[in-house]
Amino acid sequence: MRLLFVGDIVGGSGRRLLLSLLPALRDQHRPDFVVVNGENAAGGLGITPKIADELLAAGVHAITLGNHAYKHREVYEYLDREPRIVRPANYPKGNPGSGQTVVESDGARLAVVNLSGTVFLEAARSPFSEADAILADLRGKADHVLVDFHAEATSEKVAMGWHLDGRVTACVGTHTHVPTADARVLPGGTAYISDVGMTGPRGGVIGVKREQALERFTTMMPVRFETSDEDPWLNAVLVTARQDGLAESIEQVLVPGTTH
Ligand SMILES: [Fe+2]
Ligand SMILES: [Fe+2]
After folding, report:
1. What local confidence, expressed as pLDDT, does residue 258 receive?
2. Fewer Cβ atoms within 10 Å of its own Cβ: the N or the C terminal residue of the chain?
């Protein structure tokens, strides 16, 4: 099984870059599944039904989200209706959408789970016990399991990697928008990286126009943030796995756009 997981798509430049690179990435890496984090896809914050449909129509098998999942009200009903998009599972139970799904490709079943960290982020329940409950529920329903752990602190992410080692195919971190250099297969067979990075404008500050972010930091005054479109890169990982659901390899896929 070959899985391409693409980090947080930020704004129009991130979307355009993903859509333009996807055919070549498919030729080169032959993924059975393409999963993308779309929590910043709509103008830098959240996602809309139109954008989610565009990603799915381009051959994306599933979309994960994060702390910006509920930015746009128009997506609430879509989250309940479209099984190929997931929001953090450890959010309040009655919230729109689901935190887990199973998608199929050529007879292979991939479970996709989205969890939120609780260090510098808010969630209703511990992501660790939530992961345990979801894995119990998924038993027999999927051949491979991908967990997108949307979290801020590397400590919490590394801990989640160990918590899930040997129990899922891949545990990949998202949310910080900066790729980390620690991709590896843990001893138990789980592919792990603390953060995949973003698919968006490297010329900004984690997606925001850099002049505005700098003004905020230097003056400490309120500043309206807009999404940068300068120097977009695609940040992703390619995971390969065996029939038994455990990983063989994880490698970073970091591709510059052509506009710089
Ligand atoms: Fe993000
Ligand atoms: Fe986030």
Report:
1. 78
2. C
